[in-house]
Structures are given as C-alpha cells and as structure tokens.
Amino acid sequence: xxxxxxxxASGSEPVDLGWSLWVRQIRAIFRLELEKNFFGRRSILIYLxxxxxxxxxxxxxxxxxxxxxxxxxNQYSTIYAFFFNGLILRTVVFFGxxxxxxxxxxxxxxxxxxxxxxxxxxRREVLVVGKYLSGLITSVVLFTTTTVVAMLLLYLxxxxxxxxxFFTEGRGFTQILTYAGITALACIxxxxxxxxxxxxxxxxxxPALLLYGWEWLNFLLPPLxxxxxxxHYLNSLTPVPMSEGPFAVxxxxxxxxxxxxxxxxxxxxxxxxxxxxxRHLEIHYGSE
Amino acid sequence: MTAATxxxxxxxxxxxxxxEILGVNRVNLQIAPGITSLVGPNGAGKSTLMNLMxxxxxxxxxxxxLLGMPTDEPERLFRKAGYCTQFDSFxxxxxxxxxxxxxxxxxxxxxxxxxxxxxxxxxRVNLLEAADRKVAGYSKGMRQRIRLAQSIAHQPVIxxxxxxxxxxxxxxxxxxxxxxxxxxxxxxxxxxxxxxxxEVDMMSDRVVLINNGYIxxxxxxxxxxxxxxxxPMQILIRCDQPSKLAAYVFAQDHVVEARxxxxxxxxxxxTRDADRFYFLxxxxxxxxxxxxxxxxxxxxxxxxxxxxLIGTEGGSA
Lengths: 288, 317
Prior knowledge:
The complex is a heterodimer.
Chain A: H1 19-39, H2 43-51, H3 54-62, H4 76-111, H5 115-118, H6 124-155, H7 160-168, H8 172-200, H9 205-216, H10 223-226, H11 230-237, H12 256-280
Chain B: E1 9-18, E2 21-31, E3 34-39, H1 46-53, E4 61-66, E5 69-70, H2 74-80, E6 81-84, H3 96-107, H4 111-124, H5 140-152, E7 158-162, H6 170-185, E8 189-193, H7 197-203, E9 206-211, E10 214-219, H8 221-226, E11 233-239, H9 242-250, E12 255-260, E13 266-271, H10 274-286, E14 292-297, H11 302-310
Parallel strand pairs in B: 3-8, 3-9, 6-7, 7-8
Antiparallel strand pairs in B: 1-2, 1-4, 4-5, 9-10, 11-13, 11-14, 12-13
Helix pairs in contact in B: 3-4, 3-5, 4-5
C-alpha cells in the first residue's frame, strides 16, 4: 500500500517485562478507561446518581421542614448520619459502583471491544488492575464529592456561621473527612465485588440485587453473619452512632483498625479471584 | 524445543467444543512462514482456529504453540503476533489515530515510539488522511483498514487476519494483497481466512481446507490437487488435430475421459496420472504428428479442489 512503509516487521521492544512495563500499561489502560467512565454514553446514569442526594438537600435548604430537630444545630450530625447511611451509602454508592465496575468488563463484552485488550501484549492481571483503578478513581471522585457537598449543603444554609466554625474549628472537619473516607472505602469494597460479578455473570443485575438485599437486611442478621458484609464494616466507622431500629440485632461495631484492613484484605482477595477469572476468560461475543 | 518448532505455528491434536457443539476436532497442523490461507464455508471452523491460535478461545483438548510460545501468555505472544478479527466494533469515541496509538500504549510503548509506529501503520493502510476522523464515521472498508493498521502497528512477525479483504473495494483489495505479499516476503507468518477463492489462490503459499470442524486438506494447492486420486485431473489441450489426439489417449489406461472442445480445436482429457499423460503428450509432439498450441490444467486450482473436497461452490469476489 505504501511505498515508504519499509520498516521490516520485527516484533521487538518493549522488551522489559517487569514492573516499569506494567506501570506504563496500567497508565495506558487507566487513561482509556477513565475517559470512557467520565465521558462515555454510560456515564450519564452515574452523574444522575451522584446528583440524587443533592436535590432533596437543596430542597431542605429552601424549605425547612417543621419539627424541632430541624432547628437544633446539634441534631444535624444525626440527620446527616441517617441521610448518608440511607441514601448516599446504600443507594448512590452501591448502585453507582455496580454500574461503573460491572461495566468495566461486561460493558466491553456487550460492545464487542474487549478483544483489543486481550490481543495486546499485556498480562490480563494488569488489565484487571488498570480497569479497577479507573473505576475506583471515577467512583471516589464522584461520590466523595457528593458526600462532601451534601454535608455542606445540609449545614450551611441553616446555620451559616455556626457551621463554618464547626467545619473549620470543631468536629465538622473530622466528620466530613471520615464520611469521605467511608465513601472511598465503600467504593474500594463494592467496586471489587461488582467487578467480579461483571466477570462471572452474563446478567449481573440479579446477583447485584441479591447483594443489595443482603446489605439491607444486615441489621436483622446475627452478629457473626453481619460480618460477612461490606456495610457492617462501613457502619462501624461512622462518626455518629445510629440506631438501626427496634428490630435490629445489636452487635458491637468492629474497631476501625480491624475494619479498614479487613476491607482492604477482602478487596485484595476478590481482585485475585477477578485476575484468575480473566486469565481463563474466553471471548464468545455471539453469546452476549 | 527444537529450532524448527521456534519457526512454526503448531496445532497438536487440538479440539474445541462449545458444550456439545463441535468447533474444531483433532486438528494437527504445522504452519511455516509465508501466506497460509484457511478456506472453508461459513461455520466450518476458520474463525475458531484463529481464536484458538490467539488465546481468545482455549482448546478443549490439545496444545497450540506459536513460534514455541503457548497461547495463554498474551504478554509474550502479542509481542510477536497480531490478530485482525472479524469483529467490526471499536472502543467508542476514538479517532483512527487514537485507536491505533491507544493500544500501542497498552502494549507498553513510550509516546515517541507510539507516534512513529502509528504513522507507519496508518501509512501502510493508506489512512493517514482520515486518521483524525472518528472511527464511528468511517466506511466499512475504512474500518477494515484501521483494524488492519491496529493489528500490524506493533510490527508482529505473525499476522492472523480473519476475512481481511471483506468490504474493500477492488483497488484497495489489490493493494492489500500486495501488502500481504510484501510482509510474507519479509519472513512473516500470515494466516488469512477468506472465502474468495481466486484471491486465496493468487496470494497463498499453502491452503488449509476446513469443513465442519475438520481439516479436509492442507498444503500447496497443486500438491493437494495431485493427491486427489478419486477426482481425475482435467487438462485442456489446444492443437491442430484434436480428434487424432483423442484416438491416441483413449488407448491409455489412466485416461478416463476425452471430450472435444465445442470449437473442435481442443480436447479435454481426464486422467488419473497427469505425469504419464504429459509424458505421452511429449512423445506425440516429438513424433511430429500433432502440433500443440497450449496445454493447461482446467481443475488444478483452489476452486476445483474446494468443490471436490467440500462439495459446494466456493465464493467469489
């Protein structure tokens, strides 16, 4: 075709097969995936989910509901704790992570474009790491922003000067960082689970809903079973203790120094399962 | 590992089943450098063989190695191999240039080398001008070419191409075949699947005929044809006295049919032993009884072999 295309095929370089190559490859995958996560056609749902808690809180800023608790600054940490647990953590972060991480592989199988990665000189485990990191950064950026903005938006319109002092001089700064940290940890944990679900199931919605049910029913489970969940460890870290209702089975929260490493360890194990799975994955687009 | 296996693509008793459905069965092949074409009807198992070769599928039984490398180590394999699949799909939102360069970055090349290799690949497939347009806006032929560019961009020594001429116009098709020939002359392995038999015939060093998951024949097309004793070879002899020639050849036990051409200036002969027939022909000419104009085998091409072995007409352009 080209008269000047005279470079003889060599199949050479890059020849180093160690960490530096893997880091370069992870960065390349990360860049490609991050663009898809933030600007792809599937990203609209993520933005809507991230904005979901902002609308009711913005409404509260305009119309304060009746009731004394809404006029007592000290009650706001409890109100936010419920809000965070019920809407942000269990709904936005859960479904957001489900969408982002399940689509990392399942979405590419549906789009019939995963083979381009599989046909690159790339360890498939490296692909898992690159994709997971891109999903993690996407979810952490979006959902910690939601967490922080929602908290500020709840406090500031009602008690502006008191809130400023709370966030700059009082416990507020620690609380906001803790909530952001819990959100990030939720993305780490849920992300790994959903990535694996997307690799194992052709229709990942059903296992995702089963996981959702398990997480919601966590308050009814006996203490030992509670520990087989992500939400238990996340709730153990919340800065404001919450009642789980009259029917809840009470269990001691897991201390932070156990909860965080446990979550990270489980995440690592789940990613090892994902790496094993991807190493043996075949591409049958016809059956997707 | 011997030096020979380092140069070959080897299928060692390879089978692939999709549940109970047969993909390919008991495939034993050794493919040397040059252009090898996989030929067979739709669903014969050509793409399955290619997907097995590149690790997109795993064999149910048997082992495949490419230049001594197993197919389950993509990090090694795709330093040497490139595969242009039939899947007409792309990562969304990328231009042609971004598509090629992104996956070179995934290979691990630095920015400068990526840029150089991208330019070379785009130039090879004649897509430099359209390189900065979104792939989504490309015609079918351009999409085919950009996939080809992506598969050759890292300059592999094994190139596997699933129906690479599909969707190309005649001019680009000819250029692409020329490119394949150039790559083969550089010492590459080219494995090409195609259903356009005359093009396969034109460019291939050897063919692998596959049907219903089984290898029906393999090798140089003329060698394959010679071994088909149950189908006598048909030869057209143009000469001044075809009737007289017919009388000579009828006396031979290896000749099964002789028929005059419609214009009565030639003779079709079917023989079970082409070598003996040519020897006879030389003798007749040497005796000066008949003047020959031309001698040409009529069914010594891929199309005829395909028809005899697979039983249907092969495709055409």
